[in-house]
Design a protein that fits this description.
This protein is of the alpha+beta class. Helix content is about 10%, strand content about 15%. The termini are far apart. It holds the Pfam family MoeA_N.
Length: about 130
């Protein structure tokens, strides 16, 4: 049996497929992982959770708008009846054809059937959306 000398070219193994490569990387990560330890909350910045974190309640605890726009009820065009900003509790939309301007993060009023993005809306000369 001959041993390789310093002048022999190195031959790389054939490339692994996606599944095999992922499996190898995962194994290396597991081998290098430190054991889980308990730490006070004030000392955990920069650390990784040892298990999934589950909230005790839904966060936020109410439906919020993910865009600036209009919380509408029923078919349009809609009559503007108010404005909702983040941090305020809006009155319900009780009439079809009504809308409130809504900010990102604001509570969606009860009775709203949809949120229309501000970029996808227009206002008529009479002020309807």
């Amino acid at each position: 049996m001959q041993s390789a000398s310093a002048t022999d070219p190195l031959v790389a193994p054939p490339p692994a497929g996606w599944t095999e490569a992922r499996s190898r990387v995962y194994a290396v990560g597991l081998a290098g992982a430190l054991p889980a330890t308990l730490r006070p909350l004030a000392e955990v910045d920069g650390h990784t959770l040892a298990e999934p974190l589950t909230t005790r309640t839904d966060l936020p605890a109410f439906p919020t708008s993910s865009v600036d726009g209009w919380a509408v009820r029923g078919e349009g065009p809609w009559r503007v009846v108010g404005r909702v900003l983040a941090g305020s509790a809006p009155p319900p939309l009780s009439d079809d054809g009504s809308t409130v301007e809504i900010a990102t993060g604001a509570m969606v009023p009860a009775g709203a059937t949809a949120i229309v993005r501000v970029e996808e809306s227009t206002r008529t000369p009479e002020g309807l959306v």
